[in-house]
Amino acid sequence: MNGPGDIAARLAAIRARIAAAAARAGRDPGEVTLVGASKQQPIEALHAAHAAGLRCFGENRVQEGATKQPRLPADIEWHLLGPLQSNKVRAAASIFDVFHAIDRVKIARALDAEAAGLGRPLIGFLEVNLGGESSKHGFDPATLADEAATLVTCRNLRLAGLMAIPPPADDPEGSRRWFRRLRELRDELARRLAWPHPFTALSMGMSDDFEVAVEEGATHVRVGTLLFGSRPPLG
User: What is the reported pTM?
Assistant: First the structure.
């Protein structure tokens, strides 16, 4: 079941697990933002999560976000978790506040321009394809520093850090080395480049491995199935 009580209980349990993981790493759990990955979830499930205190929701597609946003309270921070196509940048910039999967310089510059036109800042993460997987988007770790250096002039798109989805693993511990690698890349870029805003964030960890991600420094975890239950089948 996915009633309001079920979602509230799941949300509390996830927050408790985040707090425990942060404690193990000597971190403040307040440093970790929980993003409810609400792709394909019915609007009632989002209302239930909001009533339970969740304020950050993440969608994978611009159109789904555009459909849901007007039907939910205005205090929600909307995150785009999926990659963004050039022809959707303008629409996305008017809906979403945070972009987790900026996979090309071109998209970053387009978002920067749209944010300037809208007169409001947007937050962004550079997505890194850590495992070099053909099925995934993202910057190549080998060329990331050179490409990122061209983006330090972005002022309206505030690039906050890096995001990655590690290669599949048999258990959560299999993701640890990839999370550590993303943290190392983040630290390298923060040290080498003159970012106009703090470059300290790490968007990493999902339902299966978010605790390991928190232990390795995640500032944003993207949890969907564990919070909302299995996605309903597409109709």
Answer: 0.96
